């Protein structure tokens, strides 16, 4: 099976739904070690994404839709998360100029997103940022694809790894971003960016699983 622009549309809309549902949780996580606006900012951004999709008409390629998500997030999300996620979706769009994605193309999408985040934020694994969820997700996705997994398998592996990795940020000391100002006091708190990463990748997995359920 392959994934197409209809999947990308479902992913964006489901992301908006899941972020709205997790807004308070993300805000509280960010209040503990950041500005306290992560949930509100992402919710506003993905609501804007849905509005743009409603007006966009038919898009031919996955990359076209991801570019729309990218530019909308960049223009509507404040704080650090807008530029970071916007660049992630933009880099993903550049490597997915296709009508359909197989498992390895899905890996390329995720790798592009990670490259965008690291290029923009200059973070590495272990600094208590969203990279701590993205890197394990990409590694798991690549392993699943190399083992012959389907696109759904790849996204399931990525989502599972991201969720576990987000939880694993709790004992880390933040050394990047606003949370780094807290030093040792950041220990014991889950990183909000890693948490939203896990939410978005779970939405990608669940949006893909609809195709399987439909027999496509």
Descriptive overview:
The protein is mostly helical. The chain has eight helices and two strands, in the order E-H-H-H-H-E-H-H-H-H. A two-stranded antiparallel ribbon has the order 1-2. Helix 1 packs antiparallel against helix 8 and helix 6 runs parallel beside helix 8 (192-213). The longest helix is centred in the first third of the chain and has 29 residues, at 5-33. Residues 6-206 form the DhaL domain. One of its GO terms (biological process) is glycerol catabolic process. This is Dihydroxyacetone kinase subunit L.
How do the helices and strands line up, and which of them pair or pack?
Blueprint: E1 3-4, H1 5-33, H2 38-56, H3 62-76, H4 81-94, E2 100-101, H5 103-121, H6 131-146, H7 151-167, H8 192-213
Antiparallel strand pairs: 1-2
**Count of distinct strands:** 2
CATH A-level architecture:
Alpha Horseshoe
Estimated share of beta-strand residues: under 5%
Residues in helices, as a percent range:
55-70%
Question: Which word captures the global form?
Answer: globular
What is the radius of gyration? Answer: 16 Å
Helix tally equals: 8
- CATH H-level superfamily: DhaL domain
How far apart, in Å, are the first and last alpha carbons?
Answer: 7 Å
SSE succession: EHHHHEHHHH
Short description:
The protein is an all-alpha fold and 216 residues long. It is built from eight helices and two strands.
